[in-house]
Amino acid sequence: LICCCQLDAGSVLSTTDENVDRIVEHHIGTTLEEVWRGAIELERLGDDSIGDIQLLLGHENITVRLMASKALLSLGEASGVRDTLISISENGDAPSPQRASAVSLLSEFRDPRTERTLRDLAASEARGDSLLRVEVGKSLYSVTRDRKLVRELLQPLLTVDDDVARTGAAIALAELGLFD
Length: 180
Known about the structure:
This protein is mainly α.
């Protein structure tokens, strides 16, 4: 009888593992929009899947780590997520949209370590990457409410030759109520 119960529990765990694996396989290597859909699917697996989703924070693929981070934040389980997002956001070899997504998710954390990370990114790597710079500005405002810092970071983008950067900065400043 004990043996049967263990098998039943194992099959439940196995089903959860299979569902997580299926979602990851379906969304790995796709667009960020598809990755966010995968995060919603992971979230729908519920609290019983949190342990399996947390294992994805160590996955080699950045988009899988982003998907897991988003799902865990939605499930209210932040353990390990901030460190994963900081790692992605500081990875200069990662694609800009993925780094920007990690920075955007970091705005969920309002603590000194997150603030330091965002300020460091604003002072260094975000200077040469307009997409990352816009997301750092928006997240910094969410974390610090420092209007002056965010204006200093984003207003210079309003005059660059890059249409995407200008538009992104203008929208961010307007959304944050910082447009003069």
